Amino acid sequence: MRVTFVGLGVMGYPMAGYLINAGHEVVVFNRTASKADAWVDQHGGAREDTPSSAASEAEIVFCCVGNDDDVRAVILGDGGVLHGISDGSVIVDHTTASATVAREVYAAAAAKNVGFLDAPLSGGQAGAENGQLTIMVGGDEEVYQRALPVMDCYAKACTLIGPVGSGQLAKMVNQICIAGIVQGLSEGLHFAKRAGLDTAKVIGAISKGAAQSWQMENRWETMVRNEFDFGFAVEWMRKDLKIALEEAQRNRVQLDMTKLVDGYYAEVQELGGNRWDTSSLIARLEKS
Predict the structure, then answer these.
(1) Catalytic: which of 35, 112, 156, 171?
(2) pLDDT digits (tens, 9 = 90+) for 105-156
(3) Which of 43, 147, 170, 199, by CA, is between 20 and 30 Å from 6?
(4) pTM (2 decimals)?
C-alpha cells in the first residue's frame, strides 16, 4: 500500500522501517527534517516537507507525535494531514493523547470522508524496535479491518476496543496499572535490600507466583543496580498519567494510587530523573 508516517521519534522511526521492509511504499514527515533525511538514507522511500504533502497520495497515514497539541497541529493545522489526504483514505494516530482529541479528529476526518482510528501503543522503544507492540484501537470496524494488516507489521497484538476514543481510554488503564505495579516492585526490592536478602533469590522465587509481572521480569536487575538511562522516560509517564487523571476527574473516578505515584514521579524528576526509565521510582526510596 501507499502509506505515510508522520513523526519519526523513538517509536515512529523503527515502526516506519517495518512498513517499508514489509513492501509498502512509504513517505515520511518529521518536524526535524534531518531525522527524515536520516530515515530515507537508511531505508529508502521518500520524505516531504509538510504533513499535507506527505499525505497527498497515501491510502493510510500513520501519526506518532507527542501530545494533543501536536496531534492537532500535524493533522488539523495549516499544512496538516487533513489538508492533503485523499477522499476515502484512513488516518491512524498512534500518539498517546486524550480521548477528547481523538473524537475531535474523528469528526473532522469524517467530514472529509476520511476514516480515523485512535491507536495508542504499549511496549515502549524496545517493542517498536522489535516489532512487538501492543496496540489498543478505537474506531469503526470497517476502518480497523482496512488498517489491521498494515499495523500487524510492527504489532504482536492489536485489539479494537470500541468506538473512537476507546483506544486512548484503554491506554490510560494500561498506564494506571503500570504505575501501581512499578511502585509495588520498587517498595518490594527496597524492602528486600534493607532486610539483607539476596534479591536474585527472592525474585527467582516470587516471580514464579502471583507477584510475577513484566516489570519484575525485565526491570528488577537494573532497579537494584540503580540503572535507569534507558526505556520509557519519566516525563512521558507523567504526561500519560496527567491525561488519565484529567479523564478521571471528568468521569468522577477516584484514582488515589495513580495520583500518589504521579507525585512520586515528580520527586524522581527533582532528583534529575526526567529522562530516566519509569522503573526509577525506586530511586526516591534508595536516596535515604
Answers:
(1) 171
(2) 999 999 999 999 999 999 999 999 999 999 999 999 999 999 999 999 999 9
(3) 170
(4) 0.96
Domain residue limits at 187? 169-286
Residue 171 annotated among the catalytic residues of the structure: yes
Could you tell me if 225 and 128 lie in one domain?
A: no
**19 and 150 inside one domain:** yes
Same domain, 155 and 197: no
